[in-house]
Specification:
Shape: globular
Distance between the termini: 59 Å
Structural class: mainly alpha
Strand order of the largest sheet: 1-2
Strand content: under 5%
Keywords: Cell membrane, Disulfide bond, G-protein coupled receptor, Glycoprotein, Membrane, Neuropeptide, Receptor, Transducer, Transmembrane, Transmembrane helix
Number of strands: 2
CATH class: Mainly Alpha
Transmembrane segments: 45-72, 84-104, 124-145, 166-190, 217-240, 261-279, 299-322
GO molecular function: G protein-coupled receptor activity; neuropeptide binding; neuropeptide receptor activity
Organism: Danio rerio
Protein name: Gpr7
Number of domains: 1
């Protein structure tokens, strides 16, 4: 059985009823062991983690809702890039909306919300892994096409707001298909020794270790290797074309507005990779080594998880600092209009 909040620990030794390992992944054969006393030393995480998750939830929900509101209400914000930003904000908002349920499970030490909600929550947890990087991949493709058209001094009649809507819908459908296997395996597991002890996990069939590794490889390839490789190739080609532009053409450089948008997309991408790369690197470690579960490893695991969660609340601040049009539109929305 596996839970999304344990990126670093392939097979924890015990399922503890009173400590923070409750969110980690377990094998059924390990459910009856007694927790070592020194693991309770990390009881402070019982308080710290809900506080961190609550801050991420409050900031993310407020910031992403503001982004959605501004883009939908301000006429000048209806651009192709902002359509992708809008969908990215919706995906982040959806994730932050379910964080309170994760906090409740953490504090209660068991899952009280039933089978259906368990599938929904774990599906959204996994959706969060794929949605950001896929929308950023689409934004990188769009930036590459903009740079290419500028270099060649050609227009892009197919690059429209309506086309961006269709592409965004395709991304949603693609990620739903990718996440569907996790939805199938998500469910409530009841401890055989304590029927009151319920956990919302991914319950794989036998052999569980093989299914566990397959799920991690699946996530690593589709959620990191393929999109990140695509993005790196696109930006390398983009920089190459900009560097080798002929000086006697009209496209000596991107105009100011296009350059700012390209820089913004690049920084949003860099922040996303900063937040998610440790998560995926920990997957490689989990697959290639047999680490002993220790309090330090648990602490690192939760730090990595919190860092990946934090990505959902950082993007609105990047837009506010890097996008003049967004900042102006937001200020205009806040202005008190005379009666």
């Amino acid at each position: 059985m596996e839970n999304i909040t344990s990126p670093f620990i392939p097979n924890p030794t015990c399922n503890f009823s009173m400590d923070l390992y409750y969110h980690n992944s377990f094998n059924r054969s390990d459910l009856n062991c007694t927790p070592p006393a020194d693991y309770f030393f990390y009881a402070d995480l019982y308080v710290v983690l809900p506080v961190i998750y609550s801050v991420i939830c409050a900031v993310g929900l407020t910031g992403n809702t503001a982004v959605i509101y501004v883009i939908l209400k301000a006429p000048k914000m209806k651009t192709v890039t902002n359509m992708f930003i809008l969908n990215l904000a919706i995906a982040d908002d959806l994730f932050t909306l379910v964080l309170p349920i994760n906090i409740a499970e953490h504090l209660l030490h068991y899952w009280p919300f039933g089978e259906v909600l368990c599938k929904i929550i774990l599906s959204i947890d996994h959706y969060n892994i794929f949605s950001s990087i896929y929308f950023l991949t689409v934004m990188s493709v769009d930036r590459y096409l903009v740079v290419l058209s500028t270099v060649r001094s050609k227009r892009m009649p197919y690059r429209t707001y309506r086309a961006a809507k269709i592409v965004s819908l395709c991304v949603w459908l693609l990620v739903i298909l990718i996440v569907m296997p996790f939805s199938v395996f998500a469910g409530v597991y009841i401890s055989p020794d304590d029927t009151e002890r319920k956990s919302c996990v991914l319950s794989f069939p036998s052999p569980e270790s093989l299914w566990f590794k397959a799920s991690r490889i699946y996530t690593l390839i589709l959620g990191f290797a393929i999109p990140v490789s695509t993005i790196c190739i696109l930006y390398t080609m983009m920089l190459y074309k900009l560097r080798n532009m002929r000086l006697n053409t009209n496209a000596k450089a991107l105009d100011k507005a296009k350059k700012k948008v390209t820089i913004m997309v690049f920084i949003v991408l860099a922040v996303c990779l900063f937040c998610w790369t440790p998560f995926h690197l920990s997957t490689i470690v989990a697959l290639t080594t047999d680490l002993r579960t220790t309090p330090l490893l648990i602490g690192i695991s939760y730090f990595i998880t919190s860092l990946s969660y934090a990505n959902s609340c950082l993007n609105p601040f990047l837009y506010a600092f890097l996008d003049d049009s967004f900042r102006k539109a937001f200020k205009k929305m806040l202005e008190c209009r005379p009666a």
